[in-house]
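Hi R.,

Here's the chain you asked about this morning:
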Amino acid sequence: MEMDSTGSTRHKLCGSAGGKCESLERGHWWLCDLSGARHRNDRARCSPRVLRRKKRPFKGDWSATDILLRRSVDGGKTWEPSRKIAGNGIDLMDNVVAIPDRTSGVVVFLYQKNYSHVFSIETRDGGRTFSAEKEITPVFDAFRKDFEWNVVTPGTGHGIQMKNGRMIASIWLANGAPKPDGTREHAPSAMGTIYSDDHGRSWHRGDVIARDSSEIENPNETVATQLPDGKVMANIRSGGPRHLRAVSASADGATGWSAPRFDRYLFDPICDAGILTVAATPKHPAAIYFVNPDSRDIPKNDKLRFRQNLTLKMSTDNGKTWAHQRVLDPGVSAYSDLTALRDDLFVIYESGSLNGAESKPDHLIVARVPIAWVNKGDAPQPWSKP
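And here is the predicted structure, written out as tokens:
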């Protein structure tokens, strides 16, 4: 655990129960997808992540992967040992999306297998035990009439439950060319949402929000949040030369999405991001918080792909503008997600580089960040490619 002058704390999550990174340093574990979820009953914080086994042939995003879980029951001060909640050590299983149900305390988890099947499991006791997995791939098959896919996955990040109880998970699809090793390209791609109106027992497809086109190149990993005005915002990663996040809004989180627009304040090195809406309290206004590696000003970043300089941004007008920002970690930092507890944000993110590769993180960090500190940061500036 480390503390800086802002009062923020950082806890390094490693492979062993004792908090040491011996397994990571030997290269046995590569941590990637992650999300946080707040639980009603015991305030346990579940951090799903994945375990990649280097004993098998390495195939990048297609490598054999298990899904692990670590819980904290003391507000993130300490973490229980990792344990596997899905996977068989042979198949690829990742892109976990956690969605807590406010009314029941149940947390639903969605994940993909070999980019061809999608499953759900749930926990009713704050992550102590889980149900048997249930396949929900037919929900994704319903997208085929609009986009024929051979790559499918939920995520990334956490899902949301709207104020009316509807659960929303972002998803993306691709129809990629096969490769000699049996994997498939992740493009061309499209993205949208699925939803549940019965607490995750059944799922239905929403609209395709965006697909590969001249307006937006290969939209894929997307995060969503319900804005203070009640609409759902999808915040979209894409390829192409703009290096900006795209956003779209819907009244019900499933249909009637606005045409995606690029947000000039949200630089994107083509990487995952996190987004969260926090309700107003006597100490701070209702606001949206967005986190990703904002590497626009990093020297020698000619291709604008460096995953560094993890930055939190804050908006009080439903994401129309961004009022404040703070750099959370100036170093190598990649996929991230966030949640809130009372007057603090919890940001979980990939940090460090395994064997010098920024796309292969060395460890996870959980940072507890005072909301008041973020809300006093400098004003973000718009960006456009030089």
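One quick note: The two ends are 40 Å apart (CA to CA).

Cheers,
M.
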